[in-house]
Write a structure and sequence with these properties.
alpha+beta; Ribosomal Protein L9, domain 1; Ribosomal Protein L9, domain 2; 2 domains; three-stranded antiparallel beta sheet; three-stranded mixed beta sheet; 7 helices; 10 strands; elongated
């Protein structure tokens, strides 16, 4: 079992606690991060008393932040967001949509959200619609609808049926193939005209008595 120690936070540490909290942390985290940066110290009654006023300020800031987040969650619930992306003719994106992409798009619409607060249920790699949870706190969550749309008009299903590609993956333009290419198997050469007539004459000749 890894050794843990009790420390008093002298500064608010995101994901750990606010100033004045006594927290249990791993010894390595304390030794390599919290103590060298002055974020924590050894707990004592005197140290806790000295931090009392600073803690009140931190508690008010935390309450104000909570109110802002509650408002954001209320406004985000049911929001529809559109992202335009480049893709191939089948709607597969050239690259995926990331948490940062969504957070940046929300920011452009007036919603301050960190990338880690965007919870992607799956990789987003094609044109489609997605339900995306936004989690600002353990008990503060909203779900938005993300529409990933192409940056151009895509071929319809009927268009895709007509599309053909050569062995190297290049698109074969309509009308560039001869009708003989469709009717004659590639591994069979067309019969010579003379051979065809000889076969017809043999078929019509009367059988010997």
């Amino acid at each position: 079992m890894r050794h843990t120690i009790q420390l008093l936070l002298t500064e608010t540490v995101d994901g750990l606690g606010i100033v004045g909290d006594v927290v249990g942390v791993k010894a390595g985290y304390a030794r390599n991060f919290l103590l060298p940066r002055g974020y924590a110290t050894v707990p004592s009654d005197e140290a806790i008393a000295e931090l009392a006023e600073k803690r009140k300020v931190a508690e008010k800031e935390l309450a104000d932040l909570r109110a802002v987040r509650e408002k954001i969650v209320g406004n985000l619930e049911g929001l529809e967001l559109h992202l335009e992306r480049s893709c191939n003719d089948f709607g597969m994106l050239y690259g995926s949509v990331t948490q940062r992409d969504i957070a940046n798009a929300l920011g452009e619409n007036g919603y301050v959200v960190k990338p880690r607060e965007v919870r992607l249920p799956q990789a987003i790699k094609r044109v489609d619609s997605y339900e995306i949870p936004i989690k600002l706190a353990t008990d503060l969550e909203a779900t938005i609808k993300l529409w990933v749309v192409a940056d151009r008009d895509l071929p319809t299903d009927d268009d895709r049926v007509e599309m053909e590609f050569d062995n190297e993956g290049n698109l074969i333009e309509p009308g560039s193939r001869r009708k003989d290419d469709w009717d004659t198997p590639k591994d069979e050469a067309p019969a010579e005209e003379g051979d065809a007539k000889t076969e017809e004459a043999a078929a019509e000749a009367p059988a010997d008595a």
